[in-house]
Amino acid sequence: MNLKKTDIPYDYWKAIIECNAAYDDHFLYGVKTTGIFCRPSCKSRVPNKENVKIFKNAMMALDEDFRPCKRCKPDGLNLPTKEWVEQIAEWIDIHFREPLTLNRLADISHGSPYHLQRSFKRVKGISPTEYIQRLRLEQACRLLESSEHPITEIGLAVGFSSTPYFLTLFKRKMGKTPSGYRKVYHQNLNKERVQHDEC
To answer: Rounded CA gap, 108 and 91, in Å?
Structure first.
């Protein structure tokens, strides 16, 4: 049976905080915010207590859709690399507006930055950073097309903390500045409207 968050015994919580390997055969713990489960000895960052769920074995964690940690491999289980990378990509799809670094992604996914970078590039064909940039630029294009928000606001809204960096990257990847992109988009839209009206 698994225990409710309020029922985490003191010695279990202490074992998690201290990464105590002596408890590895006693229980596993899942972190609700990441959906990953670990051994007590896992060197990953200590989670918030209210997000922790205790399991007696790996099968119980898997039954509740928790995934085995890449770092500590609870019960010798390991998630296939492709599936691991896809889950990280799905997490990025939701959180790309937040400040994201390779270290933060590695911490969240319980892997090393080097392994994450290499695996992500092998599966996706681009690095995690390039993947994040692409998402942010796609969202910026949508906002440029559908809103009148200032360029600086759009850059910040999609996750770029620096406006000069946003402008430089946008021009390098899209071939024109954000304001140039917006102008061309509206010109083409107006042309289409005129052609449609003439039909």
So the answer is: 10
Q: Beginning with the edge strand found earlier in the chain, give each strand of the sheet holding 28-31 in spatial order.
A: 52-55, 28-31, 36-38, 67-68
pLDDT in tens, 140-197: 999 999 999 999 999 999 999 999 999 999 999 999 999 999 999 988 887 777 666 6
The answer to whether residues 144 and 154 touch, using CB atoms and an 8 Å cutoff, is yes
Which distant-in-sequence residues (6+ apart) come within 8 Å of 61 by Cβ?
28, 30, 37, 55, 68, 74
Let me know: does 87 contact 123? Beta carbons within 8 Å. no
The Cα–Cα gap between 41 and 160 comes to 36
Q: What are phi and psi of 30, to 5 degrees?
A: -105, 150
CB atoms within 10 A of CB 55: 21
pTM of the model: 0.66
Positions annotated as catalytic residues are: 38
